[in-house]
């Protein structure tokens, strides 16, 4: 059995009017069934309002399903007596780096979770040290969180969750408020947790370049899972991703545009290195096949230069 | 109508043990009707620079002139400057406070002491420019969606009818959809009103498609100032200061180094596609020709 | 401007005072304040000041840093000074228009000023050398007897520690919102009292909303990390008295006894 098993999970937000009566119901998560194996790196993509954060909060028992069920490490989150076990086995890191650090000193914040769990003092110190080392923030253990950068604060938050020795960590848009450097450092820390500590990671984001290392990607829209697969499988559906208004990396867009112009490139190219390699292969093949004579004329063998319909590739320009 | 910064230096905490030179000898001119991207890392000094533009911070050295007049000379009408140089802060939705959207947008022009009809006319126009439908005018600003809130807040500054609109990271925290909407809207209103727009960002990719000039800041200095394609030629220097060129430019540089005859000046996906196809179809020996020496920091 | 408030802020360094148990420091602060109000002659104040000076030396916190914090309460100090200077009845010394400065007034004003300055430096020395977490732990531990009276000691302590953590964040936020509204032509500086009060609305409303948003996020984050009140909680840094703490208590008692003997009994 997987570490997270949801079946037909739905969640309704009920909007109350001023008298406290139900005014309207919004279905935020709609019939989601998914299964996550221990040790996997999972990414959930979708734009704001797609239901991805609502789904995330179910994994930590901050919300319980309106319909259907979700089991975390074999425990039903809807059962009152399981709540604390669930929260311990599935930690959560939130979006705003300022609003989740409780301690006034980095190490005290990391110790907050274990303190709540009733871990003996000596062990708290061991856990704090190892967690801070795992995210590369041990040197800052005596610092005030207010003086750290956004990326550093998020790594402290990750350490704070790690110190609770969870089986899985849910990162709910941890990079949305960070600059590119901070974003990279947080993603690096999350990958290290998965690679080294074998913690199951569930990364929720709207940046596609952050999910290329995931084992499995789920794309959400209007509360439903609309696509799933390996990053390569998901990224090969460029048109569909663009229709969902997701941020397809420029390399993938470019590879797709080249493909549409007739270049025999593989589907779902994710990085610049990959594209470079594939193009080199093409060049070598062409050199070998056509020799020196055939390859001189531009566009002579079916590759159309600049004749694509203009709306096929726009690079995100309005 | 131009805003000019001459040798502006700003030192934080001058009276403490650790003074920080946030801005160092900045020379910059913002002419009429230009679309400028101001790029820099967190802590590069771009936010400090931006607050100099409308007189919120006084430079430690150097001067700032608006239409040739020093904005820090005695009797300079600060309020007028603040309406001429509209500054939209990061997360501007955090400044919303009125009971309804329309009143909130009226706050700025009201402070200018304009007659009521004029205030309302401006508010209406500003809301139209950012694409907030009339049905939402009477709603509480706190009930809008994230993207709408931000646009309403931008309208609050636009309603002062500035000649220069400065936006500090207007896309921070938005998802790609919200980001594209905001950037599209800004480009649209730039076109429609003809005002100057300064877009502050740490993402080259975001601004490359919109602006006609890029100013790159690092450690309080202006590193480059020029057209996007000129600036992107300095891929290595940019990477050294922690900034990335757009992925497309990165790929073209890689290919060029690998012997493909691609034009590394291409900045958009269609341009890149065309030059790659051409390079694959034709010759591919030697790097692309035609590099200019432009894009260096402008001396003043 | 708002950054200058050092009152209630922790100054990070390593010193004997930093390492002392927070219960010792809390008790010391309390006794020190009491001693200030019991003393009524010059030698007593000299002793109190000397005691404080030694503590400041031991704390490794730069004196300048503390003085900077004083600036914010200068107004309060001046007010108390002027009030006492002119409104204490007694032998007149100088007459200024309708106000009379009396000998007793001068004495009183000087006394009040010295007391206030010592009191504020003394208590800020405690907050400067004690992390809010320690401080609240200490308070919680000292107030434990109140638990029997159903006072939610742990919850109060937790609330205080969180409030302290968010002070600098909200300060920064205030600064930002203020600037944003000034950029929209708001004027916080001119006009009469009513106009000024009205001008605060565009600052206060967003600030309140921000505070609530943060509170909400924080509550969620705490819950996600298994926080459920003081029940069954262990401590990362439990309060255990060391030898130095007992010694500090002894020094403290010595000081208190001496200051009372000298400060109350010796004539000036």
Structure write-up:
- The complex is a heterotrimer of chains A (318), B (300) and C (268).
- Chain A contains 10 helices and 10 strands.
- By secondary structure, chain A is α/β, with parallel strands linked by helices.
- Chain A has 2 domains: 228 residues, Rossmann fold (3-Layer(aba) Sandwich), CATH 3.40.50.300; 43 residues, no CATH class.
- Chain B has 300 residues and is an alpha/beta fold.
- Chain B is globular, with a radius of gyration of 21 Å.
- Chain C is mainly α.
- Chain C has 11 helices and 2 strands.
- Chain C has a two-stranded antiparallel ribbon with strand order 1-2.
- In chain C, a hairpin with a 2-residue loop joins strand 1 and strand 2.
- Chain C is flat, with a radius of gyration of 23 Å.
- The two termini of chain C are 42 Å apart.
- The interface between A and B is large, with 51 and 48 residues.
Brief account:
The complex is a heterotrimer of chains A (318), B (300) and C (268). By secondary structure, chain A is of the alpha/beta class.
